[in-house]
Amino acid sequence: MRNYKNTADTISTVGSMLLFLLFAVCMMMIIATAAGSYSRINDNYTTDFTVSASIRYLSNKIKSSEKVELSENGMILQSGGIANIIYYSEGGLYEKTVAAGSEYELSGGDRIFELNGVEIKETEELYKITVNVGEKTSSAIVRKGTV
To answer: Rounded distance, CA 12 to CA 101, Å?
Structure first.
């Protein structure tokens, strides 16, 4: 006679293991999908933050300066005998501080933001700041004068 109890136990064990394997595979797929979504959300957040923070930084610097001079790759902001030189170079926005009226070069500053491009245009009473980060471009218009 055959022992059907051992066969039933084996089938039950194999069925339980297959069910657990199916559960584990489904959980791995869910985790992989969630990780990809989180990565995209984080990248978008970082890009949005960099764009908005750099525009706010530049606009606040312009507003608080007594004199603004635009150069080819940046600007010179003078206030109280000090000149802040903000310029775009090598994929980043840099700033350095020198005494007003002294000679300067657009190198040797501290990197503030990683950007793909910055453009600052001057009109009669306004400055237009355009910042590129990744594929995102954003602009702001800033009024001349003090805060």
So the answer is: 87
Residue with tokens 């001349």: 144
Amino acid 30: pLDDT: 95
76, 84 Cβ separation under 8 angstroms: yes
| pTM (2 d.p.) | 0.75
d(CA 58, CA 86): 9
CB-CB contact of 79 with 68 (8 Å): no
Mean pLDDT per segment of 10 residues, for the chain of length 147 residues?
A: 68 90 95 93 90 92 88 86 90 90 82 90 88 89 72
Range of the domain at 136: 4-143
Answer for the pair 127, 120: CB distance below 8 angstroms, yes or no: yes
Domain tally for the chain? 1
The distance in angstroms from the start CA to the end CA of the chain is: 97
Query: How far apart are the C-alpha atoms of 93 and 26, rounded to whole Å?
Result: 45
